[in-house]
Amino acid sequence: MAAVESLPPGTPSAMRNAFGTVLSALILVLIGVLAFSIRLFSVIKYESVIHEFDPYFNYRVTQFLSKNGIYEFWNWFDDRTWYPLGRVIGGTVYPGLTLTAGTIWWVLNAINIPLSVETVCVFTAPVFSAFASWATYLLTKEVKGSGAGLAAAALLAMVPSYISRSVAGSYDNEAVAIFALIFTFYLYIKTLNTGSLFYATLNAIAYFYMVCSWGGYTFIINLIPMHVLLCIVTGRYSPRLYIAYAPLVVLGTLLAALVPVVGFNAVLTSEHFASFLVFIIIHVVALVYYIKGILTPKMFKVAVTLVVSIGLVVCLIVVAVLVALVASSPTGGWSGRSLSLLDPTYASKYIPIIASVSEHQPPTWPSYFMDINVLAFLVPAGIIACFSPLSDASSFVVLYIVMSVYFSGVMVRLMLVLAPAACIMSGIALSQAFDVFTGSIKYQLSSKSKDDAEDNTSTKNAPKDDASSGKADKGEEVAKERLSKKGKKKEREPAEKPSVKSKIVKKKALVLPLEASIVALLLLIMLGAFYVIHCVWAAAEAYSAPSIVLTSQSHDGLHVFDDFRESYAWLSHNTDVDDKVASWWDYGYQTTAMANRTVIVDNNTWNNTHIATVGTAMSSPEKAAWEIFNSLDVKYVLVVFGGVIGYPSDDINKFLWMVRIGGGEFPHIKEADYLRDGQYRIDSEATPTMLNCLMYKLCYYRFVETDGKGYDRVRRTEIGKKHFKLTHFEEVFTSHHWMVRIYKLKPQKNRIRGRVKKLKQKTSSGVSSKSVKKNPWM
Amino acid sequence: MAARNWIFAVAVAVAVFLSLSTFSSAQDLQIVNAERRIDLSSHIVKAFLTLKVENIGKDPAADMLLAFPPTQIKNLAMVQALAVTGKKKKKIYLPLDVKPSEQPDAPNDAGYFLVSFATPLGPGETVTLEVLYILTHSLEPFPVEITQSESQLVYYRDSAVVLSPYRIKQQTTFFKTPSTRVESFTSVEPANRAGKEIKYGPYEDRAPYSYAPVIVHFENNSPFAVVEELVREIEISHWGSLQITENYRLTHGGARHKGVFSRVEYQSRRSISGSSSFNALLAVLPPRVNSVYYRDNIGNISTSHLRTGFKKSELEFEPRYPLFGGWKATFIIGYRVPLEDYLFEAPDGRRYLNFTFGCPLVETIVNKLTLKVVLPEGSKDPSAVLPFAVNQDLQVKYSYLDIVGRTVVVLQKDNVVPTHNVPFQVYYTFKPIYMLAEPLMLVSAFFFVFVTSLAYVHIDLNIVKK
After folding, report:
1. Helical H segments across B215-296, by residue range
2. Residue A569 and residue B147: Cβ atoms within 8 Å?
3. Which helix (H) or strand (E) holds A274?
4. What is the DSSP letter of A538?
5. B437 contacts in A (CB within 8 Å)?
6. Which of A333, A364, A384 is a domain's end point?
7. Which of A112, A548, A768 comes nearest B401 by C-beta?
8. Do A569 and B398 make contact, defined as CB atoms within 8 angstroms?
């Protein structure tokens, strides 16, 4: 090793360099293939289909975009949702993902590859996760060399947290946003390392792409100023830092304001204030450095005292004005989701609609292990490695991991932001560890052989050691070690890298015993193997289910529960195209995308009152609910019911949130009325309010006839009220496993004499009057 | 001017003479015996007509006319005729040419088909014809709307006597209903019903164009599976397979469902609940079929079974939900068959595809069938050969990396019934060298990429040497 290192930069070294480049390129390609293919479990085990809820909306938007073009897309007013309000899609959606997939589709079709929009959407996420792992390589390479880069890229390619959001079919903003996030960070570090304006501009563009893609861009625009501030405070200010930061803020803010959904928020909301504050500070610091350069030290001291005293006063005034301005707005200029990040208890106190989403809950410890697995243990080692030596770049990744650990602790969905940081850290840790161990093995071997050359007496141990070291060498670490060496050579290119020399020195100091290093290497390899096994398991078993089609494995084979699509298909083919369907907001996106019917509320929970109205209707008795729905022009009501097959996330289990959200706007709905002694139950102990509310009735209508008892398999109890009739609704469709039940609002009765008596008779034959009424409008 | 008038007069005279001559030939034939059996057991009405025709004129007759009332002519999917020769045990059936024909003096817009005899029928000779005609959309549900628990009753309207431009000496008509439940039938003496059969006749010596309207009102719960539109695309790849994609828009053509659909009743009392609905369909696919898929716009449909065999493969599948009257469903079936079973080389060097026309679903009416045969890129001179008339058209389709596009032969036919599932041929010329076009294109593209990257690495574009 030492001999190779000390070779003069001649032909063999150049050959090795070229070989290293080709090898790392090959490894990167393989990592890309790995990242892509590990996400295909969902297609192989299930089918090539869009998953879950939000992806259906994105898919629908992409369909619109590919059909109508970009200008129509910006002006798209969607009247199929939030009836009767509608929604301006072009102005309220982060367009990055849709534009990306739309462009891919357009390019493919332009060269006559007739892939459907759906196929493109399904495979966008896996493709972008390959990009994301390459971006991770670049970022980590800037921080600690290409060996660490390759390790981090390989880790990121299969980190379960990221897989959970980017399996094939999971067509959501995060799929492209994580790539954009890492790439923006890479360009920031690259600018910081090179001081090149070219990269600074690219950085602003990457930031723009991130703003297009995901609301999480605020993480970038807060993290980078924090790092700049950290650099300034720790006396690491340099012109490179200025170039890395100032163009980003100016260009980035201008570009961000171009995105309709952000618009003036880019300068008005509190999420962006940190960047402007640091922008001012960095200019002050730059000015100070400039003045320091032209003044004598004595003059400088005088100037500083003068400026500081005046500056403090000015700053105080500005801060006071700002505080007053911000305090005048009720939320302090922060959006609800951001506030719940800063104050984790905020949402559960004030915004039940944010709290009701499971991915906004704080994570549990097992979920950390599930989502980043062994990385959780490698991260501290990585942090330590970043401190030896601490560079601008490594201080950035340290800051990144610290912040993302905090955020992931607040909201489980932000685990996704933690995952790249954890991968980078673990990649650095692994690479450094391999470096140290293989280095010491080589050192030991070469010193042994030197000893052999010096005195031929100790020939006993040498062959054995050779053999064992050969075994160790032939493993992956050969490649790793070469690559890291290659990385070092690359690192040498930037002039201001002092690390290489110190590393060589350190290597001499950090020599471990041969046996210990071999054992440690084996342990590390085992650790990596466990990680791979866990990731493959997570990708195959935990995160691949599309959630619109459920399967269950029982002793007599595989059961498929395709009830959602069954009923959406029924709605789309057998109802009028302008009929309105009311359901809880979870199913809004799916209903518009799959059934193509107008919905009252959907997963874009922008109007709390509207959702509360639906929640109130669901929690009201039949007649009141009928009136609410009728006032909203609703024709069909869709409920999801899992009691027959034991599907736990059905509407009965979500019902308390409907009550809470409804009660938040309409105080006559009280949560306590639905609880018996603080317990939520649907059996015979349940409160009369609960047993008479619309949701209960629609879910359990004629349920008792299935088994004679009315045993609910989710709640594991017999239902409280078994035999009842519906007076204002009629069942029009129930899916095969009863998971989706669709009811139609009965039309209003004509005013006739003896109305009360007639009503009772008419309940069964109300159907005919409806069809008679309907016909004139057909 | 005078000359023109003269020519006009001659033309009129010739026309009158011609029409008279056809009329006279109509008078020269008479039907000795007619027996008609109408099968009403499914929603495709099949009528088997046995005619014994005698030439009572002086001249040999080359053809005869079959007449249909205007209500039937638009629903008539197919008319076939066979001439029967030989005695009881050794009957030989000879297919005859049947063509739609216009008659200027048709009473009440009756429609005609012209049957050409194999050999002209000499004076005094008789011939026995077996005619099969198929009617679609001829069962009218009454009541028009039914609930889940009711069974479906339909009207069938026809005539008790065979409509014919010839005198019929003796005739009988049988209606076969699917069950013994017959609500009513028009009585034209003598008419009686025994079990599933209603017999009208025998009637003696009816004049030409006799008509005796009858209505049969009976129960028919067979699946009224109507494909409103079917687009079949057959893509020929000379690399060894035939990819078939079929887009269905299916509807239940029977009595409309009204009111409640109760799953609990549908599941627990299957025999009486939703008896007119259907939820299983059977498609007969070619043998050696592979890569079969069954899906719709929103993804796979997981309820299907495939049984492959040597003669045929059967795909048994269910739509996402049971179809009640008036309910609709769309789905796509796709499959692949080996090329060598269907593509042959004609003696003149052209290639031809020999495939089955029609709809693979059994007992289904297709209102509009579009069959697209996508020929490989570079093929020329396409021509389609079919045993019946269809609309033909040519299109161009661009698929994977095409530059000039693929020729698509579009065959379009309305009102298709399973009897239309007969082979048809599409002839075209194709040079095998075109098969290599796309691989070569890809190879050169990659080559170009590598060469440019090579060049990029080796070219130094800096003005100032570093």
Report:
1. 263-268
2. no
3. helix A273-294
4. I
5. none
6. A333
7. A112
8. no
Where is the domain boundary, A313, A333, A353?
Answer: A333
CB contact, 8 Å: B259 with chain A? yes
**Which residues in chain A are closer than 8 Å to B262, comparing Cβ atoms?**
702, 731, 734
ipTM of the complex: 0.87
Joined together, the tokens standing for residue B287 give 């043998």
User: Kind of pairing, strands B29-39 and B167-176?
Assistant: parallel
Pinpoint the residues of chain B covered by CATH 2.60.40.1730: 29-219, 225-438
pTM: 0.85
pLDDT in tens, B346-375: 898 889 999 999 899 988 999 999 999 999
State both tokens at A22. Answer: 């080709």
For residue A508, being part of any structural domain is answered with no
Interhelix angle A392-410/A173-194, nearest 10 degrees: 150
Q: From B295, which residue of chain A is nearest by alpha-carbon distance?
A: A47
Q: Could you tell me the mean pLDDT of each successive run of 10 residues in chain A, 778 residues long?
A: 41 73 92 94 89 90 92 90 87 91 93 89 93 94 90 93 90 91 94 92 94 90 92 89 92 92 85 87 87 82 83 87 74 65 69 73 84 88 89 91 88 88 93 89 81 52 40 40 42 42 51 86 92 92 85 80 90 91 90 90 85 90 90 91 87 89 87 86 86 90 85 87 88 90 86 55 42 40
How many domains does chain A contain in total? 2
Cross-chain residue pair B259–A112, CB shorter than 8 Å: no
Q: How far is B46 from B33, CA to CA, in rounded Å?
A: 20
Please give the interface size between A and B, counted as residue pairs whose CB atoms are below 8 Å apart.
Answer: 85
pLDDT tens-digit profile of A539-556? 988 888 888 888 887 777
Cα–Cα dist A389/A149, whole Å? 17
How does residue B148 score in pLDDT terms, banded at 50, 70 and 90? Answer: confident
Nearest to B329 among A549, A567, A569 (CB): A569
Task: Please list, residue by residue across B212-243, b when 16 or more beta carbons sit within 10 angstroms of its beta carbon and e when fewer do.
Answer: bebebbbbbbbbbbbbeebbbbbbbbbeebbe
Task: State the CATH architecture for B225-438.
Answer: Sandwich (2.60)
Range of the domain at A319: 188-193+205-333
With both helix axes pointing from N to C terminus, report the angle between A608-619 and A651-665 in degrees, rounded to the nearest 10: 120
> Which residues on chain B are in Cβ contact (under 8 Å) with A736?
263, 321
Q: Which of B321, B403, B466 to mutate to test the interface with A (most CBs of A within 10 A)?
A: B321
Q: What angle do CA A113, A115, A117 make, to 5 degrees?
A: 140
Two tokens at A437? 């161990």
CATH code of the domain occupying B29-219: 2.60.40.1730
Q: Could you say which residues from 669 to 708 on chain A have a Cβ atom under 8 Å away from some Cβ of chain B? A: 702, 705-706
Are the beta carbons of B378 and B434 closer than 8 angstroms? yes
The verdict on residue A369 lying in a domain is: no
Using CB atoms, which residue from A47, A113, A702 is nearest to B299? A47
Q: What would the two tokens of residue A487 be?
A: 């990385």
User: A730 and B401: CB-CB below 8 Å?
Assistant: no
Contact between chains at B261 and A734 (C-beta distance less than 8 A)? yes
Whether residue A273 lies inside any domain: the answer is yes
Q: Which amino acid is at B320?
A: R
* Chosen from A22, A51, A60, A112 to mutate, greatest number of chain B CBs within 10 A: A112
Structure tokens at A16: 């090795």
